[in-house]
Amino acid sequence: MKSKGKTVRSRMVKRMGAAVAVALIGSTVAATGSHAAVRPNSATKPVYGGSITVLIDGSIAGHCFGNALPGGPLGASRSIYESLVERTNKGKYVGYLAESFTTTDNRVWNIKLRPGITFSNGEAFNATVVKQNIDIGRGAVTTYPSTGIGVNSNILTVDVVDDLNVRVTLERADNDFLGLMYRAGRYVMRAPAQIANRTTCATNPIGTGPFMLKSFTPDEQIVVKNPTYWRKDAKGRQLPYLDQITFVSVKEASQRAAGVRRGTAEVGFFTQGDATFTNGLRTHKSLVTGYKSTQTAWGQWMPNVNKAGSPFKYQNCRLAAAYSMDWKSYNKVRLKGTGDYSGSIVGKNHIMFTTKGAPTYNLTKAKDYLAKCNVDLGAAAPMKITLYADTSSQSQGNVKFMQQSMEKAGILFNTPYLGEAALLVSKIYKGGGNDFDFAEGTPAEGGSPGYVIPFFVSKAFMTGTTNPIATSPYGIGYNRVIALGNHTDTHVDDLIYAAQAETNPKLAKTKWQAATQYIQEQGYAIPSVHGGFQVFVNNKAKLHGIGKLKMPSGQYADVVETKGLDYTGVWKG
Asked: Is the pTM of this model over 0.90?
C-alpha cells in the first residue's frame, strides 16, 4: 500500500512540479474564504466504483486529539470521521451521529445516539465510546493532551445513561452547546482501538465515516470505501459510491489550479488567499466547475497582550495597529474582491455582530495612537512588532501587504517569521500562550458563538470554577492556550458568560453584541476579512451528486464546508 502511495505521489510531482508543504488556518497565512451561493451539479443515476484525486492546501499533521487540522487536511480526515453534530446550509445545528439533543435549562444536555452504527473496524459506536471521546477531549482522561481541554472547560461531567444515551452537565448554562459540539467539524468520534494505541493514534484513524484508511503520510493519504458504513441513500442504496480517494498535499495554489484545470486531479481545494488562481479558474467554465462555501470564517487579528516584550499590553499600541490595517485594500488587491469586510470581528449574519467600538482604517488616528503608544512604552519605544507567514509565496505576499499598510502609520517591524504551518500552529497553540505578537487572521468559525467564545475569554476555566480539571496539570497547562490574545480582562468573560446563559433570544443578542463592542473597543480583537472556501472540479471527471445528498436529519449541508466537499454521495458517471 505504501509503495502505491509513493508511486501516485511521484506521478503528481512530476506532472505538476508540486512543492509539498503545509497550510495554516487564517486569512493572511493561508487565508480564509468568500461566501456565495452554490449550485449543485445535475443528478444522474448513481454509479458505483471509481477513484479520484483531491489536491489539498497543506500536509495532514495527523488524526489524534492533539492534531488541529485546517480546511484541506481536515477534509481528508473527515472522509474517515464523523461528528455528533453537523451544520445545515441554513446555519442550523442538527444531530448527525446523535439523533437528538434535549435540555430544560441549557445546563444539563441529554444526547441520544443513532442506533446500529459501527466503526470501520467493527467496534460499536455507543454511549461509552462518546463518553470516552469527550472525556479525553476535556482532559478528564489524561491519555492525550490537546487544546480541547481549554475549549471544553465548561463541561463538568459526562455520564452514560444507557447504551444510546449520554448526559453532559455543564458548569454554566450554554444556549449554544450544539455549536460548541460541532466546533467547525472538528469534534469527531474516534474508535476505541485507535485511542488505545498511543504510538499509532495520529497515523491510524478509525472512524464511523464512509471511507477508511488505506495508506497515510502527511503529504498523501489514500482512503477506500468503508464496506460496513451505516448510511444509505434515499433509494436504499449503500453509501458511499466511490471506491477510493487520494488526497495529495500541494502547497502552491498555482499548482493546485493547474492540476485541476488540466485534469491531473479531479478536485482542488482552495482558501480565500488563493483568489488570484480561483478567479482564473472561474474563467475556464468549459474545463472546471467551481463551488463556494457560505461565509463561515470570521477573521480577526488578536494582539498578544501579555507576551514578554510585546507592545500590545498597552491599549494605545493595540489601537495604533488596528487603525493602520487597510482591510478593504487588502481585499481588493490580495483577495481580488472575493472576501468580505463587515467592520466587526464577526459577519453581519452572526448573533454577535456589531460595528460599535470597532476601529476602521484611519492613518491619522493610527499615528495619534502610535504617539501615545510610544509614550506608554517609555525606554522600550518605538513600537516594533513581528509578523509571521507560512512558506507559500501567497501567504508571504499577504503578510507583506499588511505590514506595508501598518508601516504607513510609522509602525516598525522585525523580519517576518517564516515556517511551515504545523510549526506555526504549535507556536500559537502552546502551553504558556501564543509565541507571536499577533495571532494573525484567526478565524472563529461557524454561524454561532460556540466556536468563538473560547478564543476571546481571558482563560479557559472561569474565575471561581468548580471544575476539578482546572487544577489538574492539563487544566493548568491549557488554561490560556485557546485565549490567543492572552489578555487578563475578566470583564470580557463576564459579558460573554451573561450572553451565553441568557434564555431570551432577543436579550441574548443584545448581550452578545455588548461583548463584541467591548472586545473591539479594547483592541483585544481587530476585525479583518471574513470568508469561506472554494472547491473546483474538473468537468471531464464527470463527478455527480455533489451537494445532493441529504443528511440523516433530512436537511442539506453546505455544498462546500470548512472541510471541503462531502464525498459520501459523490460518484463518477
From this structure: no
